[in-house]
Amino acid sequence: MTEITTSPAAATAATAAGATSATSGATGSTGLTSDFETFLKMLTAQARYQDPLEPIDSTEYAAQLAQFSMVEQQVQTNDTLSALFARMDSSNMASLAGWVGMEVRADTPVYFDGQPVTVSPGVAATADAAYLVVTGPDGREVQRTEIDLSAEPVEWAGVDSSGAPFASGVYTFSVDSFRNGDKIEPGVTEVYGRITEAQFEGNDVMLVLDGGPAIAANDVSALRQGN
């Protein structure tokens, strides 16, 4: 019967192959840290299982140590960058906290709770008649009021023709512009809503308003102190 043996060199190769295979699936900072630990184990195994009659070449060993040092430095650099980004995010989040409670103007639905809503109507420049259209929480039109063509901000009181207040909820505002009886393309109608939360979504800052509507900070055209 033939006896199969494994030489120290073969053991070293097997150890290196297994470590390399275990590392190949790792990615990102975790992968780099794993590579660093695996390389250290490989280097230790290579020194432990070297053939005393054919020791590791000093030049090759020095090159491996240099590579080990480079990997270690890269791990430390990644850790430093991660800590820096964490501090930057914390700083940005702290600055966003100052937005909470402010009122922003944007093209967005807005929560009505009995208080008047400031509307900046998007009246078409060539219009000879314009109407502010209010859509209720159920998506149906609840009010249509003729407005001035100057496009100056108007206060929507939130009451019907009898003076009774509309129910609280999220309302949407738009403008129907007409010229010679024909409906024409209007501008953007914006309203003021109060910010209740500011949050990061990837590289974007999202502002959550009363009642749940959310808008991107880039879509805000004006900012004022909340009432």
What does this 3D model show about the protein?
Helix content is 33%, strand content 29%. By secondary structure, the chain is of the alpha+beta class. Strands 1, 3, 6, 9, 10, 11 and 12 form a seven-stranded antiparallel beta sheet that branches. Strands 2, 4, 5, 7 and 8 form a five-stranded antiparallel beta sheet that branches. A hairpin with a 2-residue loop joins strand 9 (190-201) and strand 10. Helix 1 packs antiparallel against helix 2 and helix 2 (28-48) runs antiparallel to helix 3 (58-96). The radius of gyration is 34 Å and the shape is rod-shaped. The model is unreliable at 1-29 (pLDDT under 50).
Characteristic key phrases:
3 helices; 33% helix; five-stranded antiparallel sheet; 227 residues; alpha+beta; disordered N terminus; rod-shaped; seven-stranded antiparallel sheet
Determine the fraction of residues in helical runs and give it as a percent range. 25-40%
**What number is the mean pLDDT?**
76
Count of DSSP helices?
3
Number of strands: 12
Judged by helices, strands and strand pairing, the structural class is: alpha+beta
State Rg: 34 Å
Describe the SSE topology.
Layout: H1 8-23, H2 28-48, H3 58-96, E1 103-106, E2 110-112, E3 117-120, E4 129-135, E5 141-146, E6 154-156, E7 169-179, E8 182-184, E9 190-201, E10 204-209, E11 214-216, E12 222-224
Antiparallel strand pairs: 1-9, 1-12, 2-7, 3-6, 3-9, 4-5, 4-7, 7-8, 9-10, 10-11
Helix pairs in contact: 1-2, 2-3
Compact overview of the structure:
With 227 residues, the protein is α+β, with helices and mostly antiparallel strands. It contains three helices and twelve strands.
